[in-house]
Structures are given as structure tokens and as C-alpha cells.
Predict the structure.
Amino acid sequence: MTARILIVEDEALVAMELRFVLEDLGHQVVGTAADARTARNIVRETEVDLALVDIHLSDGPTGIELGRELGQEIGVTVLFMTANPGMVRNGVAGTIGVLSKPTDERAVQTAVDYALRRRTGEPVQYAPPQLQLFG
Amino acid sequence: MLTADDQRDRREALAAIADAMPQMVWSTRPDGFHDYYNARWYEFTGVPDGSTDGEGWNGMFHPEDQARAWERWRHSLETGEPYEIEYRLRRHDGVYRWTLGRAMPLRNEAGQIVRWYGTCTDIDDLKRMEQAKELLSQELSHRIKNIFAVVSALIALSARRFPEAKGFAAAVRTRINALARAHEFVRPHTESSRPTVGSMTLHAFLTDLFKAYAGADGGARVRLTGDDASFDDQAATSVALLFHELATNAAKYGALSAEGGWVDLDTRRTDDRFVLSWTEHGGPPVEGEPERSGFGASLATLSVEGQLGGRLTRTWAREGLRVVADLPATALSRRRAALNVATTTSD
């Protein structure tokens, strides 16, 4: 399953590594945004299936609101990836869950697969153990 | 017997003392009706004399704190328990300042409450300093966690140019990731940053660490039993490396490499020891001690014997590897143990 994925991450090295991992898996990374405004601009001009969103971005802790907006208003599937998963402990409406950083290729792969299956309505029996789901 | 003049002198002396205090002082009848405030109260709040008598005081609190303060005060009036609460009190310029409110009952010889005496102390500056400190320590922790993520990404990126380094890079990365996870459990936390798993104990951390090895149905394959314990940052690195190596090894060669295999991990506190027993079940038969031990095994030994001051024994039973880490009871939180010793000796 190939998807168009947006990476929202302000650490360039982490973003680059993530891009390589996703491309190795056969996905298309449509863009990398270091702040919420850049992410909004990309989503306005490009179709995005899945966004991987960090919480602390270069313009502050704007990832939570961005994730909610992408999920609820624009219909993008949203997974948070953060070093501080406690920040979204109570869940964010319209998003799937959170993956704790640092992580590894396998955890990214299973979490992305899971999110894309949910998006297309395919039956999924079990969520990957490293992914904390929201409600 | 005190004469009426003596009593008046006494009241005036008390009032003079109360007015000289830097704190706000107040007093109520046994039923909680406020009938006295010192000068500092009127100076701070800027309200006209007598205007906060009775129940008027509650209106001086921040609207969000009024119900809570009222509740607490009523509880003290009913039970006679000392009153203590932090709330925001409106200053004469309209600014709400965090304030510590306390009160004690005065009882007569029959034990009945005859008056309540209370104080309000402006703790706003202290509160702000605490918040700033907390924010700073949060910020540092966040950056440390981020550095782990950057280092991990850097290793993976570097290895991409050297396919022969892939296995090596993956091994180093997973070790760093295990350290990062342990750090999450020992760093200073506020309510909002606390890991979702709930408590901050050894079992909670191990449960989190072993998630990666869960079965296809999401069930745990490393089964934790026994006594839980708290652990500190000094022990975190060793505990993380030890169990990361044991689990990685089990996933490659031991019980976790076979479908249906599992590990029992029992942690038990005795008088002065803390013993962690790792027993593998249902894996391929163990043919005895491997001829060469890898770096992972050395790391596990170094963690237990070098860092934690314990003993690590491995038994290569045919039905599964058994590893016992026998630690001094204080090994997991040495800093607290040191503090306890310091307190005991000074007594």
C-alpha cells in the first residue's frame, strides 16, 4: 500500500531518516515541515493521506492543534511522533495515536501500516504494541 | 481574675502585634463568622474596614478558587481540623496573588472551640519561582529526549552509506532507544509529561521496554511477577541495558525466537537484596554455554557487576536460559539510600 505522507518534524536529521525509512517502504513523502504554517501550506497544495506529526516544532508546541486540524477538518490520517508522549496523553480528536521517539524502522513500519489500514477501512485485529492509541 | 481594663489592654496588645506582622491575620467566631482582620489585610486587599466581615472574605478569592476554599473551610469548621489551602487572593490593584491560608482553632478547657485564628501569606513569588524551575527542568528533559532521537537518527543515516554496517547500526540504535526509554521513567515529571503507562516504577518501565517483543495478539511474552520498586537515574542505564540485552538475545536465539516461547521475570526484595530472575521457556533446546560470548553479554555483566554492584549468574539449562541478577537492595535508588543513611547518622 503506497501512501502520500507528510512529515512534520523540526529536527532535520530525524526528518531525513524518517523520509528514507518511509521511501524504503515504498511510500511517497510529499514534504517535510518544521513548523505548523509550512505544514498547512503543503496540505493546501498537495493531497496527503497520512501526516506524522511531532508536537514541539520550530514555532513551539503547535503540533497538537495542527494534528487536530489536519485530522478533523482536512481528513488527513494523523499519527503523532514525539519524545514526550505525555503531552497528548488525553488524546487528540480526529487523530489515531502516538509513537514514542526515538523509535526504530520496524515500529514506524507497523504503526504506518496500521494507520493506513484504518484509513482505508481494512479490518485490523491488533494495534502495534508500541503505538499508544487514542480512545 | 482579669479586670475589664486588663482584658481591653490585652486585646489592644494582641491587635498591635497582629498589625505589626507582615502576614494578613484574621479571626472568626466558632461558627466561622469573620469579625477581625489586621491592618495588613486591609492594606493588601484595599477594601473598606469591616466590609469583609461575615462571609464577605470568599468574594476576595479568584472565582475558580472560591468553591474549593469554601468547602475546605466548612470542613474545618465541622471537624475542628486545622485549615490549610492555597488560593488566589485579589490585591487592591485587581491582581490575583497566590496565597497560603492557614487557621487553627482555639479551644477552652472543656475542649470546645471558642475562636479560629488564621493567617494569609503571599506566596506568589515563591510559586512563580517553583513554576519557572519546573519549566526549566521540563525543557532540559525534553531536549535530552530529543538528543537521543537525533543521535539515533544520525547513526541510521550514517549507516545508510555502508550496507555492511547495517547490523551494527541497528544494534547500537536499539541500545540507545532502550536508554531513552529508561530516561523517560526517571526524569523529573509534571502531571502532563508523566508517561501514559501510569506509575514510574521498575515494572512499568520493564513493561514498556518489553512491548516491542509482544506476541502477534499483543499479549506480553515477558511475564512480570514479584515486588515492584522505584529506580533512579543512576540505575536506569544499567537496568535498561541489562534487560535490553537479555530480551534481544532471547529474540535471536532463545525463548522469544520460537512461537509460543515466553520468559518469566520475577523481581523479589528480601532483607538487603533485590533479586531479578529471568527464566526462558518454550524456546529451542539450549545446548550449553556458547563458546564465545558476544558484546551484549559483556554489557549485561558490566551493568550488573560494574555499575549496580551485584552478581550476574547464567545457567544454561536445556529447557531454557536462566539469568539471575542479585543486587544490593539499595542498588536501584542509590541516591535515596545515601540520603537515608545521612538522615540516620545525623539523628
About this structure: The mean pLDDT of chain B is 87. The two ends of chain B are 45 Å apart (CA to CA).
